[in-house]
Amino acid sequence: MPSDTLLISPLGGVGEVGKNSTLYQYDNHLLLVDAGVKFPEEALHGVDLVIPDFGYVTERPDDLIAILITHGHEDHIGAIPHLLMQLERQEPVPIYGAPLALGFIGVKLKEHGLREAADLRPIGPGERLPLGPFEAEAISVNHSVPDSLAFAIRTPVGLIVHTGDFKFDPTPVDGATTDADTFRRLGDEGVLALLSDCVRIEQPGWTPSERIVSEALGEILAKAPGRVIVTTFASNIGRLREVMRAGYQLGRRAAVVGRSMDENLKVARELGFLDLPTDVMIDLRSAQSLPPNQVVLLATGSQGEPTSVLSRMGAGDYRPLKILPQDTVVFSATAVPGNEETVAQSIDNLFRRGARVIYRALNERVHVSGHASREELKHMIELTRPRYCIPLHGEYRMLVLYRELAAEAGVPPESVFVMEIGDVLAFGPEGAERAGAIPSGSVLVDGLTIGGVTRVVLRDRRRLAADGIIVVSVAVDRETGELLSAPDVVARGFASPHDGEILEEARDRVERALRRVGQGEPEYGFLMDKIKDTLRLFIYEQTRQRPMILPVVTEV
C-alpha cells in the first residue's frame, strides 16, 4: 500500500451493536477512536464481556500514537483496560477525551491496577490536537451522557468526520446541543468521509428530547404513594441528576444503590456535573429511616443483570433493601439487544413482590434514546456534505438502510461503504477503495482472562448447561493396573427418568471394561479414554443426551 494512503478499519461496531472501535492508519502511525465492549449473549456461558480483537494494534504497540474517546459509555470505553493489558510498551498511551469520559476511564484503570499505563489528557470542544500525521478537532454533540464529542480528523489525504453517538436535541436538560454550526463549517471546508452513528436508522423522524423524560419522571415522583426506585444506565448522569432535582423539590431525598452508579456519580460530582444542593444525596441507612414517600432510590439493574441490586431485590435476595407494597419502580431505559428476556424477568419478579413497575411499554415517556433517528442522520449528511460515507454502530441491516438514506441526501450508493469488522478502506489520490482486511474479530473476556475462552471452552460449557456432567472415579493398583474397587459414578445436571438405573448400569459397564484390560502397569491416558468410550455411546443410546464425561483415575 502506498505511503500516502489513509487506511480506516472498524475493529468493532459494524454488523453489531457494541464494542465500538475504529482504527486509522497513515504510514506507520496508528490512531484509535474508542475501545468499547459488548455484553455477551446468553449462549456465551460464563463470559463476562466481548471486546474487539486488538491483535493488529498490540503487535505494533509503539506505532499507537493516541486513543480518542467520544464519550463515556461502556460500548465505547469498556475495553480500554483490556487493551492496555495486552500492550507491551514503555511509555503510557495518550488517551484524549472530555473530562467526564476520562473520569470514568480513570476509575476502571485504577480497579485494574493500570493507572500508570495511560496518560489521560482532557480536551474540550474546539480544541485541536496535533497527533503525528493527524490533527483531531473536538466537536460538542448531544447524547445520553454529558460531555460527548465528535472528532474532525484532518489527515494528509483529506478531512474525516467521526460523529460518535449523537442526536440533535433542541431542548437538552443540560443545555448542551450538537454543534451544527461546526459541522456546517466542516462541510464548507470539504469532508472526504463521514463516519456516522446509524443505530436508529429504522426510526423515522427526530428522536424526542430528553426534557420529555425529565417531565415524565417528575410526574411519577409527584404521584407515587411510597418510595420511587429509578433504574437507568449508570452513565446517564444527566437523567440521574434530573431525578434527584425533581425529587428534592417534592421533599424526597436520594440514595444510590449499586457500585457502578455510585462511582459514576462521585466522578460526576467531582467534575461539576451534579449542580445540586449538598443535602440531596444521603446514604441508604439514612434513607431507610425516612418515610417511604420522602425517598427516591437510584439503582443499577436496568438491563436485568442477575447480580445487580434491582434484580436481587426482585428475587428477594438483597438483604439491605426489600420491595415494599407501595414501591414504584421505573425502568428508564430500553433493553440492549440480547437482554430482553432478563429485563422482562426482572420486571416480572418486581411485580410478584408487590411493586408497581413502570417501563416503556406502559409509558413511552420514561425513556428516550440518545441516538439520532432517520431525519437527524440525514441532517448530519446535509451539514457535512461528504464525498464518502461509512455507517458505524449498527447491525448489518442498519448499515444497508443508512446507504439508502445517504442516497436520498445526495451521496451515490457506490460512495457509501458497508463494512465488516476488520475490513480496510484505503483513501488515496484516486479516491476510496476496499483494500482487504486485517486480523480482527471478537475476544471473550472471562474474569481477568482475555481470549482464553475458546470455541472448545464454549462447546464444553454448552454441553454442561444442556446435559450436565458424569464423573467416574476409579482406583487402580499402581504396579499391576488391577481395579481395586467398583467405580464410583456421580452425575450433576444430568436428568433422566431412570437416571438411578442408568448410573448403576454405567458403573457395571465401566467395571467390566476395566477388568478386561488385563494386568500390567496402568497407562493413565488409556484408562481415561476407555472410560469415556465405554459410557459415551451407552448414555446416548439410553437418553439421547451427551453429558460431559469426566474420568478420575487414582493410582494406589
Structural summary, described in words:
By secondary structure, the protein is an alpha/beta fold. The chain has three domains: 282 residues, Ribonuclease Z/Hydroxyacylglutathione hydrolase-like (Metallo-beta-lactamase, Chain A, 4-Layer Sandwich), CATH 3.60.15; 153 residues, Metallo-hydrolase/oxidoreductase (Rossmann fold); 101 residues, Roll (Ubiquitin-like (UB roll)). It has 16 helices and 25 strands. The strands form five sheets. An eight-stranded mixed sheet has the order 7-6-5-3-2-1-19-20, with helices on one face. A six-stranded mixed sheet has the order 8-9-10-11-12-18. Strands 14-15-13-16-17 form a five-stranded parallel sheet, sandwiched between helices. The chain is globular and about 85 Å long.
The CATH first-level class of the largest domain comes to Alpha Beta
Tally of DSSP helical segments? 16
- Helix content class: 25-40%
Beta-strand proportion: 15-25%
Q: Any idea how many domains?
A: 3
Overall 3D form: globular
Task: Quickly give the structural class.
Answer: alpha/beta
CATH architecture call of the largest domain:
4-Layer Sandwich
Oligomeric state of the chains in view: single chain
Number of strands: 25
